[in-house]
Design a protein that fits this description.
Blueprint (H helix, E strand, L loop, with lengths): L1 E7 L5 H9 L5 E3 H8 L7 H8 L12 H10 L1 H25 L4 E5 L3 H4 L8 E6 L2 H12 L3 H10 L3 H7 L2 E4 L5 H20 L1
Parallel strand pairs: 1-3, 1-4, 2-3, 4-5
Length: 200
C-alpha cells in the first residue's frame, strides 16, 4: 500500500482535500488529529508537558492549555523546541502505527509541516501539495480563526515557502479560486492515479 503525504500552508484547504479523499473510501492519518489526541486529557504527552513546563500549562480538564502554550512558543524559540522534543517523537510513532494499520488501497497521511520537518519526505511514497496564494491564505485564516493579518503572516513566516512546498511535491492541487466541484474533480483525478500506482 502506498502512502501519500498531503501538505500545504495554513489556510490552503488541506482539510477539505483530505475530506474529499476520505469520501472516496481512502483512510486518513492526520498528524494534527494525533497531536490533539496526545495533548488531550490523559494524553500520552501530558505528564512530560506538565513536568517540563509546569502545571500552569495544564488546563482544568487535564489537557494542554493551548492558548497559553501558543503564546509561549510564539515568542520563545527554546520553548518551542522543548515542546517539539516531547510531541514530535510521539506523533511520529503514532502516525507510523496508524499508517501500518490503515485498511485501503492507499493511505493519505496529512502532515502540515511535511516539508519543514525534512524527514517526512522519506516516510511517504508521494507528496501532494495543496497550493494557493499567500493573500488567499491570509483571507481564509482571518475569516476562520479571527486572527489579525499580522498573526497570520507570522504563522506563514514560520512555514516552508510556497516555492519549497511545490519543489517537494510530486502532485499539486491548486485551491485558489477553486469551486467545490472543480476541487472534487481534481481529487477524483488523483484518486484514480493513486489507485493505479497502488496496484503497480
Amino acid at each position: 500500500m502506498i502512502a501519500v503525504g498531503l501538505t500545504g500552508g495554513i489556510g490552503s484547504g488541506k482539510s477539505t482535500v483530505a475530506d474529499l479523499f476520505a469520501a472516496r473510501g481512502v483512510p486518513l492519518v492526520d498528524t494534527d488529529v494525533i497531536a490533539h489526541r496526545i495533548t488531550a486529557p490523559h494524553g500520552i504527552a501530558m505528564a512530560e508537558i506538565a513536568a517540563q513546563f509546569g502545571p500552569e500549562f495544564v488546563a482544568a480538564d487535564g489537557s494542554m492549555d493551548r492558548a497559553r502554550m501558543r503564546t509561549l512558543v510564539f515568542g520563545d524559540e527554546s520553548a518551542r523546541k522543548r515542546l517539539e522534543a516531547i510531541t514530535h517523537p510521539l506523533i511520529r510513532a503514532e502516525t507510523e502505527r496508524e499508517t501500518r494499520e490503515a485498511n485501503g488501497p492507499y493511505v493519505i497521511v496529512v502532515v502540515p509541516l511535511l516539508v519543514e520537518s525534512g524527514s517526512w519526505k522519506m516516510r511517504v511514497d508521494r507528496v501532494l501539495a495543496v497550493d494557493c496564494s499567500v493573500e488567499t491564505q491570509i483571507a481564509r485564516v482571518m475569516r476562520r480563526n479571527g486572527f489579525t493579518r499580522e498573526q497570520v503572516l507570522s504563522i506563514i513566516a514560520r512555514q516552508a515557502t510556497r516555492e519549497a512546498r511545490l519543489a517537494a511535491a510530486d502532485d499539486v492541487i491548486v485551491n485558489d479560486g477553486a469551486t467545490p466541484e472543480s476541487l472534487a474533480q481534481d481529487v477524483q483525478t488523483l484518486h484514480e492515479r493513486y489507485l493505479v500506482l497502488s496496484r503497480a
